[in-house]
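Box S2. Input/output pair 1.
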Amino acid sequence: MEPDRRGRNARRRDWAVAIGLGVAIVVLLLTARADGRDPGSKVRALTKPDWTAAPLPHGWHEVDRPLTGVLIPIQVFAAATYPIVLHHHPGQCGPPEAVLAEMPPGGLLLQVFEYPARGPEGRPIQVPRLPRRPDRFRWADATWGPFECAGPSYKFDYRQGGRALQAHVWMNRATADPALKAGALRILDNLRDAPRRRK
């Protein structure tokens, strides 16, 4: 039987993107420490986008606090289909296990990150070339795998408005509510960088 070359090439591309983004993060953090600065305060000031996907589909609500302690990439949006009580410490490299453990069988959790184009001192960060944001997101556009320490998720890598974004959707694929799954795609379709408010 002839091997599925297209599927194999797609998996190689996904791993290349993941490795490239990881290298960019390491370079950024090493640069900050080499300058003798605390990367935390500087990294938080890189970008503060005001992303919105309003109105959210029925059954979804926005999570207005970071789910992880990761500084780069930056969480720009998160939403869930079930109540999340954020009395715990953020996860180290993904949503805390308690948050995923509270997910009902039909529930979903979505988190969107941005990889900044510049480091703490304004130096450009090399970000791999990502595909343009599709007109409509489909699950076929995502890759399912254990990309974060929080377990397997659907991962979307794309560029929108000149920004490098990555979205993760956690769910139980066997029991996830189809209507809520469709809602996750609508959120990504509607996610926009809202205009800055004048002070």
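Box S3. Input/output pair 2.
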Amino acid sequence: MGRLRRQSEVLGTSVLSVCAMIPLKFFNKNEKEQFIKQLNEQFGIKDVPFSLAKLGRERIIVFSGDISEKEILGLDRFARIEGIGLYFAKIDEKTQDLRLSIEGVQLMKEQITKNIFELDEKQAEQWMMGQELLLEDIKKSREISRVQINSPLGGRVGSTSEIEIEKGFFIMKFKNDFLGTGKISAEKISNFIPKSRRLKYKEIKVEE
């Protein structure tokens, strides 16, 4: 038992060390301005009233409240501090575009005006269950005659058989509900809802 306990303690220390090795860097004023500029270009967001930090190379965390950056960095030396902050966005490794997390979308929903992809009720249910949406199915849907996209790059809005949809990250929306971020490619909209947060069919209730 003593040996097993010691092995467990060593393993726990190793895991903790690996977590603590992931660098956490707070944005300076210029970095935050550049980040918000990119958010504005992609989604129309003009202000992020929180402290921002990059966790590793891709994840953006936001912090609010009375705890200082120095105190957060002090805590981060001993354990991963994601429980203190909120996962806000991720930087796409290939394109460097920003993908807002579900929490990020909810925090910024009052400011989001660009790159919004409107879903109908059936598509919203599929999305909340974690399914990818095929663009061909969207175009063929009898429930919609026009796909509404608010994009700075366009996407010509016309009949579903004629619509040209830009690729990239879009905020998925049904009526007044923002449902996270999807990535549009040539054939589908990729879904990033974690498995643990996907809804079963009987659990889905869409606000009327």
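Caption for Box S3: The domain at 116-202 is CATH 2.30.130.60 (Archaeosine Trna-guanine Transglycosylase; Chain: A, domain 4). Residues 1-19, 142-161 have pLDDT under 50 and may be disordered.
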